[in-house]
Amino acid sequence: MQRLSNKEALDLIQNASLLELGQMASERKLELHPKKVTTFVIDRNINYTNICWVDCKFCAFYKHLNDDGAYILTFEEIDKKIDELLEIGGTQILFQGGVHPQLKIEFYEDLLEHISTKYPTINIHGFSSIEIDFIAKISKLTYIEVLTKLKAKGLASIPGAGAEILNDEVRDIIAPKKMDANDWLEVHRTAHSLDIKSTATMMFGTIETDEQIISHWDKIRQLQDETGG
Fold it and tell me: Is the N or C terminus of the chain more exposed, i.e. has fewer CB atoms within 10 Å?
């Protein structure tokens, strides 16, 4: 199957049915992976803190530092959640939280070291580029320094949260305190240079246009072409 152009992709999301899109995706999957095998991961999303200063307009999760209900999970609370995951055969944790205004690199290093030492079979998929960006700022480090330190303590891959729509006109309205689109991509580019794999998300259904959705996908595809990450 020939790679879609942006124009073709726009036509598809505006005119193709969900069934047609699913059929095309299935055909492409079989081209790349002819064996009719589907895999999955049993994991658990652990939000280590809900304290955040970024104040995204679409978020109902965050609390400010001194709000009622604000928390940072203790290591014991995190252990309990991982134990529950292991009991059902889980192998991975998706580990992320709010952008805490006071937590520096040492907190994250200690946390990762604790988990990777106590649970060596657990894959740690953690910390969005938004968190990594702020860890770098508050700790006076570069992206590559932060990611190198986190990888050394057990970080395996990073999630795609915070991508929202990779268009700064949209980001400036729905999440004006977040890093811009280029910086989001740069965190992932840096991670890939250290052989840290990553995923990407898209938060749609607010003010973005179809064209901006296509541009979002294209930026991610270009980065994947560049790094293989």
Answer: N
Q: Name the DSSP class of 131.
A: H
Of 48, 218, 217, nearest to 128 by C-alpha is: 48
pLDDT tens for each residue of 179-211 = 999 999 999 999 999 999 999 999 999 999 999
Task: Beginning with the edge strand found earlier in the chain, give each strand of the sheet holding 157-158 in spatial order.
Answer: 43-47, 92-96, 123-126, 157-158, 197-198
DSSP H or E segment with residue 171: helix 168-174
pTM above 0.85, yes or no: yes
Q: What is the CA radius of gyration of the chain?
A: 19
- Give the angle 202-221-38 at the CA atoms, nearest 5°: 75
- Domains in the chain, ordered, with CATH? 1-39 (no CATH), 40-227 (3.20.20.70)
Task: Convert the pLDDT of each residue in 71-89 to its tens digit.
Answer: 999 999 999 999 999 999 9
Question: What is the sign, positive or negative, of the torsion defined by CA atoms of 183, 184, 186, 187?
Answer: positive
